[in-house]
Amino acid sequence: MLSKKLRIKLKQFKLSTSSLKALSTKRQPLARKCSCLSFFKDINVGLINSWAFLFLIFLIIALLSAIPDSMAAQLTPNQEQTQTSRPAAKPSSPPQPQTAIATEKPLSVIKNQITINGRLIPYTATAGEITILKPDEKPGASIFFVAYTRDDVKDKSTRPIMFCFNGGPGSSTVWLHLGGLGPKKVALTEEGYPLKIPADVIDSEDSLLDVTDLVFVDAVSTGYSRPLPGEDRSQFHGVEEDANAFTEFIRIYLTKFDRWLSPKFLLGESYGTCLLY
User: Across all residues in the chain, what is the average pLDDT?
Assistant: First the structure.
């Protein structure tokens, strides 16, 4: 009886031992699974934290780069009013051709005297430029002149004035001026050659200054007379063109120096005589 009960107890103990072994065998994979899940959980949490940190950095960078645009877009009412009230820029027009501008230089004036036929004659020498007008009343050319006027004359309206032109065509009036009609002339030999180079200038006792004032005029494109910048020189070249230019010069000179009441004379040499008719 005792041995039977003992065997039953031993059998139950074996069963319980085997059950424990089986249970322990079943729990080992479960423990491994739990430890693996815990490991992966830690990894997932770390990854989530890393992505959150990176997302936060990208968000800050995006906000910083967007600040200038947002500030430029959000204008105050005064700024908007200022910008809207600004007139629109006009389209640039093509460059216009330059108009000739008359810029006369100051006149050069000196006092001197000369003895002609035994009489001392004080005079004023004036050199300079006068701008003449074209038929359309616009400045066209600058004409150079040298004028000699007697100083001891009380009434200029009774004093004759003579305008002198050389010929060529294409010659300045230097020949009449320094050849004998002016108060000064180049010192020449009997054959008409300069005594030396450079030539000397001496008093001219053959000058007409004792009986008339003298104005020596250079035609356009001769001497110091020139068309104004941008002007076609051909409009001043030719018999009629020269005559028109001299006529305009004389008109302006008489007005500028108050000589309209003076007796007026014209003197031409060679081609210059063609301008008198």
Answer: 77
Q: How far apart are CA 41 and CA 45, in angstroms?
A: 6
With a CB cutoff of 8 Å and minimum separation 6, the contacts of 192 are none
Provide Rg for the chain, Cα atoms.
57
Tell me the whole-structure pTM to 2 decimals: 0.63
What count of Cα atoms within 13 Å lies in the side-chain half-sphere of residue 72?
A: 5
Question: For the stretch 181-208, what's the b/e string if a residue is b when 16 or more beta carbons lie within 10 angstroms of its beta carbon?
Answer: bbbbbbebeeeeeeeeeeeeeeebeebb
Q: So what's the pLDDT on residue 171?
A: 87
**Which residue did the predictor score with more confidence, 206 or 55?**
206
Picking from 219, 156, 158, 209, the residue whose alpha carbon sits closest to that of residue 181 is 209
Give every CB contact of residue 149 below 8 A, 6+ residues apart in sequence: 123, 124, 126, 159, 161, 213
